[in-house]
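> forwarded from #structure-qc
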């Protein structure tokens, strides 16, 4: 959970120089929080769990959540601390990013700090590896309540210490860099099978403009094409919004059993493919504007592009 200041430049600096900014914007960010922003914008009932500082950045983060219908019952404001923020340079021609961030000084969750009822009352718990001390207890609570656990493994974020957590993930969708390091496979479909064999019911690897790869609960493989855009302004938040759209699709179209539990084992592959297509469409459309959330499409626009 972080606040972004995005600056669009003609080219990345290579040394001491002066450039005029092409465009700038302030926007909310963070892998889990942006995923929730997508699902909330589309109409899902979502709640954020985190801690932020009692500064202006923290207040901005909370106000931004209101725009996307994200409940903040699980967000604790900690006095005397600062919230996370980042400055992102976006290169005009390529849409590539250079990120400079300042970490929040608010303490991470420990096991005793968990808001367990918010976890156990949910269909899906979505995590990305933060709050490491609390993750296993949170996953244990989720499993006991039959809440599915989803994991976002971003590029340059793989650490072997995550392997203990990864063994308990139900929906594991990771970036190419993460998938290759985690599995040792450079063939992305093989990487998906490896993730599936490690325990994930849904295993996925995303590869930007090259599309995404999946293995479903019945071990069937699926390749989802990317939806190319004529102009790419900024790729910030594309992977995060991909996750949000995929999880939204699961909660809306997935099979719900007699106990009201989201049942991936009996959700038809056609539904899972529709989730992947929606996610791909949202990720693509989110490149049209500066920022990770400001360019999020409407649900209708994403469904139209995905032809679902």
């Amino acid at each position: 959970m972080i606040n972004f200041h995005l600056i669009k430049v003609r080219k990345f600096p290579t040394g001491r120089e002066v450039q005029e900014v092409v465009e700038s914007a302030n926007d909310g960010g963070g892998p889990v929080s942006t995923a929730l922003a997508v699902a909330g914008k589309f109409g899902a009932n979502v709640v954020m769990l985190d801690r932020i500082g009692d500064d202006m950045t923290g207040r901005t983060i909370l106000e931004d959540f209101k725009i996307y219908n994200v409940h903040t019952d699980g967000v604790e404001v900690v006095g005397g601390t600062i919230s996370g923020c980042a400055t992102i340079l976006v290169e005009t021609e390529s849409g590539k990013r250079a990120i400079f961030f300042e970490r929040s000084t608010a303490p991470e969750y420990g096991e005793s700090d968990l808001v367990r009822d918010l976890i156990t009352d949910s269909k899906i718990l979505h995590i990305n590896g933060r709050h490491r001390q609390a993750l296993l207890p949170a996953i244990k609570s989720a499993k006991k309540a039959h809440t599915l656990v989803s994991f976002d493994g971003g590029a340059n974020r793989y650490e072997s210490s995550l392997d203990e957590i990864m063994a308990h993930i139900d929906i594991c969708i990771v970036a190419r860099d993460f998938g290759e390091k985690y599995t040792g496979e450079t063939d992305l479909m093989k990487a998906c099978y490896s993730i599936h064999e490690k325990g994930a019911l849904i295993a996925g690897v995303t590869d930007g403009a090259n599309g995404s790869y999946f293995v479903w609960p019945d071990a069937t493989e699926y390749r989802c094409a990317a939806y190319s855009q004529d102009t790419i302004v900024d790729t910030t938040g594309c992977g995060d919004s991909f996750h949000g759209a995929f999880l939204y699709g699961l909660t809306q179209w997935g099979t719900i059993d007699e106990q009201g539990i989201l049942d991936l084992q009996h959700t038809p592959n056609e539904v899972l493919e529709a989730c992947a297509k929606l996610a791909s469409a949202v990720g693509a459309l989110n490149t049209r504007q500066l920022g990770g959330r400001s360019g999020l499409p409407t649900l209708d626009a994403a469904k139209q592009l995905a032809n679902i």
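QC bot note: The two ends are 31 Å apart (CA to CA). The mean pLDDT is 94.
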